[in-house]
Amino acid sequence: MINITIDGKKLTVEENTTILEAASENGIKIPNLCYDGRVETYGACGLCVVEAEGSAKLLRACSTKCSESMVINTKSDRVIRARKTALELLISDHDGDCKAPCSLECPANTDCQGYVGLIANGEYKQAVRLIKERIAFPSSIGRICPHPCEKKCRRKYVDEPVSIAALKGFVGDMDLASDDRYIPPVEPDTGKRVAVIGGGPGGLTAAFFLRRMGHGVTVFDMMEKMGGMLRYGIPEYRLPKSILDREIKQIEDLGVNFKNNVKIGRDISLDELKKDYDAVVVALGAWNSSKMRIAGEDCEGVIGGIDFLREVALGNRPEIGGRVAICGGGNTAMDACRTAVRLGAKEVRVLYRRTRDEMPAEDIEIKEAMEEGVDFCFLSSPCEIISENGKLKSVKIQKYELGEPDESGRRRPKAVDGSVEEVEFDTVIMAIGQYPELEGFEGLEISAKNTILADSGSFRTSADGVFAVGDVSNRGASIAIEAIGEAQKASVVIDRYLNGEDVKYKKPFYVERTLPDGYFDKFEKAVRAEMPVLPADERKNSFKEVALGISEETAVNEAMRCLECGCHDYYECKLIEYANEYDVKPQKFSGEKHFRNNEDKSSLIIRNADKCILCGLCVRVCEEREGVTALGLIGRGFDTIVNPELSLPLDLSSCTFCGACVDVCPTGALKEKQPIKKQLAVEEESRKSVCELCDKLCPIDIRYIGDTVTRIKPGDKNTLLCKKGKFDLTDKLNGAQK
Question: What are the chain's domains?
Answer without folding.
Answer: 2-92 (3.10.20.740), 101-182+513-559 (1.10.1060.10), 193-287+436-498 (3.50.50.60), 290-432 (3.50.50.60), 596-672 (3.30.70.20), 684-737 (no CATH)
